[in-house]
Design a protein that fits this description.
Strand content: 15-25%
Radius of gyration: 22 Å
Number of helices: 10
CATH superfamily of the largest domain: Regulatory factor, effector binding domain
CATH class of the largest domain: Alpha Beta
Structural class: alpha+beta
Shape: globular
Order of helices and strands: EHHHHHHHEEEHHEEEEHEEE
CATH topology of the largest domain: Multidrug-efflux Transporter 1 Regulator Bmrr, Chain A
Number of domains: 2
Length: 303
């Protein structure tokens, strides 16, 4: 039973579960994330972001844990050699397998075969998306031309949610070093973007992505901080969401709701380009602080 106002999003459940079926069938093979996305009838970028937010774990972490869980079961129910099991599950060597196994379970594969050993393994997931709809989301959809941006770059990872700590720390370092002030002074006349956060280039296998603190690229680059890199957004349609509340919690919650609540019923999916966090002047610790999240979107495909 669902509470009043709740809606079960059957379409996205079926699409995400189709990708899960592909992952489960391929635990002993190399996973092609593009193929997984095709099964879900969406872009690779969209699948990875939806998976991370709806499941609470990245797709790559889930795959790793499911493979190690299968290994744990095999170790306790068969006499297969560790080296053969490691190679069958895609590890380059028994040592690489043993390191991953111990990191996950706290013991070695050989110790797992000792009588009485108890292991906590990861069961297969099954997606069930329930939309409560108890809090509205303010957004607008706009068409925009391509933008040339430049800024300072951080390479971070969604593994274990590390980006949630590393990105705010990156902003703090940039502010303390004076580089944020240099970017602010270099904003081109007439630019309404200000200093923005830019998320781009997510890699499914490494779980890494690029995060830039960036401005629209000025003609005069002489006052930019050292180490700036350029990035270009595509022209097209953006879904622009309002976020209110102290940073970083408010904007992190907005991003979570975009993927978990808005996308499943919006008729749109992620276009695969950079996402923007657009900040306004004001007290970022205030409960009324206003900023925006810009997501490039296209009409959703249907399988």
């Amino acid at each position: 039973m669902f509470a009043p106002g709740e809606v079960r999003c059957v379409d996205w459940q079926q699409r995400l579960n189709a990708a899960l079926d592909y992952i489960e069938d391929g635990l002993e093979e190399e996973i092609d994330w593009t193929e997984a996305a095709r099964r879900a009838s969406c872009s690779t970028f969209h699948l990875l972001r939806m998976f991370e937010i709806v499941a609470g774990v990245s797709a790559a972490d889930y795959l790793r844990r499911r493979r190690l869980s299968r290994a744990a079961l095999e170790l306790t129910t068969s006499d297969e050699k560790v080296i053969d099991l490691a190679l069958r599950l895609g590890y380059d060597s028994p040592d690489a397998f043993a390191r991953a196994f111990k990191r996950e379970f706290g013991i070695t594969p050989r110790e797992a075969r000792e009588p009485g050993i108890r292991l906590k393994t990861w069961p297969r997931l099954s997606f069930e998306i329930v939309l409560k709809g108890d809090t509205h989301m303010d957004f607008r959809v706009e068409s925009r031309e391509a933008m040339d941006l430049t800024g300072l770059k951080l390479t971070t990872t969604i593994e274990d949610g590390r980006q949630l700590q590393e990105v705010p720390a990156f902003w703090d370092r940039t502010r303390r070093s004076g580089d944020l002030a240099k970017l602010e002074r270099s904003i081109p006349a007439g630019s309404k973007l200000g200093v923005a956060g830019v998320c781009a280039d997510m890699d499914a296998d490494s779980q890494e992505f690029s995060y830039l603190i960036a401005i629209e690229a000025p003609r005069d680059r002489s006052n930019l901080p050292a180490g700036c890199v350029d990035i270009r957004t595509g022209s097209g349609v953006w879904a622009i969401f309002e976020s209110r509340g102290p940073l970083p919690g408010a904007i992190q919650d907005t991003i979570r709701r975009i993927y978990a609540e808005w996308f499943p019923t919006s008729g749109y999916e992620h276009a695969g380009g950079p996402e923007l966090e657009v900040y306004t002047k004001g007290d970022q610790d205030s409960p009324d602080y206003y900023c925006e999240v810009w997501i490039p979107v296209v009409k959703a495909a249907r399988g």
